[in-house]
Amino acid sequence: MMRGLFVLLFAIFSFVVLGATAYANDRPGRVITVGAPATEIVFALGAGDSVIATDTTSTRPESVEALPKVGYMRQLASEGIISLKPDLIIAVEKSGPDNVLEELRSLGIPIVRLPSLDAMKNLPDAIAIAGAALGRDDAADALTQKVRGDIEGLRHLAEQERPSIMFLMAVGHGKPLSAGSHTTAAEIIDLIGGNNPMATFDGFKPVSSEIIAADQSDYVLVPQSTVDHYGGLDGLKTDPVLGLNKAVSNGKVLTVSASTILGFGPQSASEIREVAQSLHQQEQGQ
Questions:
Q1: Every domain of the chain and the residues it spans
Q2: Exposed/middle/buried for residue 134 (C-beta within 10 Å: 0-12, 13-18, 19+)
Q3: How far apart (Å, rounded) are the C-alpha atoms in residues 89 and 125?
Q4: Span 31-155: which CATH code?
Q5: Which of 42, 73, 67, 65 is nearest to 53 (CA)?
């Protein structure tokens, strides 16, 4: 009887172990991510241990900084990617160039391109697509549910006020950039309940010091990296160009991460929610 029980337990143990091994083998083990949102999604799904390299725009989570880089997301080179022997590439829609991606596909390397993450509405689908490719559908369902909750919270806050908010970003020694329609910054402004005074043009464009000085927006939205570049808000106020802006000089500055400006990822929804709450509190005089 003991022998029979032992055989039964051994069979059950073997089934569980072999099943778990087969399940694990279905998941890619050498993943390259291209684009900050793609990297954030893969790590948020619990697949960070399988990531062997990222592109240069990927900065979150902090652990990616130690990983090899395959170049800028729009200027990938096939040689470096091939040498890493990936079994999956998960890339944002803007990744390229196309001839490099086609070469990688011709070598049998699977490439999953996510829908455009310049629009928050595409984030749940992007999470689901990445989850399926990584064999992590359950994690994708849970993450999608959380993201949808954050987005719904934004809609509630956005109904309460419509102040004007201009986006500004310092770019090296060149003119600062502002954001027109069809940009992540424009959608952030809309999601947090603001009006974009630069909505008459499309995309990110340089703006002159005259336009910055003449702008009468209630607030400015800037990447946190821009504030850090000047050593804080006081440094931003003393900049000879950005300091000309009324909202900057009044300290009416809202910040968002550069990663979110590059595209919406899992952290973006909760991050934008915090910006919306900050705006609401300032509007209420708290």
A1: 31-155, 161-283
A2: buried
A3: 17
A4: 3.40.50.1980
A5: 67
Name the pairing type of β-strands 177-179 and 204-206: antiparallel
**Which one, of 232, 219, 240, 235, lies nearest residue 168 by Cα?**
219
The pTM of the full predicted model, rounded to 2 decimals, is: 0.84
Q: What are the distances in angstroms from CA 279 to CA 59, 110, 219, 236, 272?
A: 26, 43, 9, 19, 10
Phi/psi for 282 (5° steps) reads -65, -40
Average of pLDDT values for 79-86? 97
Interatomic CA distance for residues 89 and 109, integer angstroms: 7
The beta strand positions in the chain, using DSSP E, are 31-34, 51-54, 88-91, 111-113, 165-167, 177-179, 204-206, 219-223, 253-256
β-partners of residue 164 are 195
Report how far Cα 130 is from the mean position of its chain's Cα atoms: 14
Tokens 């689901």 found at = 128
Q: Do domains 31-155 and 161-283 have the same CATH topology?
A: yes
Pull the structure tokens for residue 235. 């440094």
Structure token digits, residue 34: 């291209």
* Gap between the Cα atoms of 38 and 117, Å rounded: 9
Report phi then psi at 48, rounded to 5: -60, -35
Which fold would CATH assign to domain 161-283? Rossmann fold (3.40.50)
**What's the pLDDT tens digit per position in 239-259?**
999 999 999 999 999 999 999
Region 207-215 average pLDDT? 96
- Residue 285: its pLDDT value, please? 72
Predicted local confidence at residue 10, as pLDDT: 45
Length of the chain (residues): 286
Whole-angstrom Cα distance, residue 107 to residue 59?
28
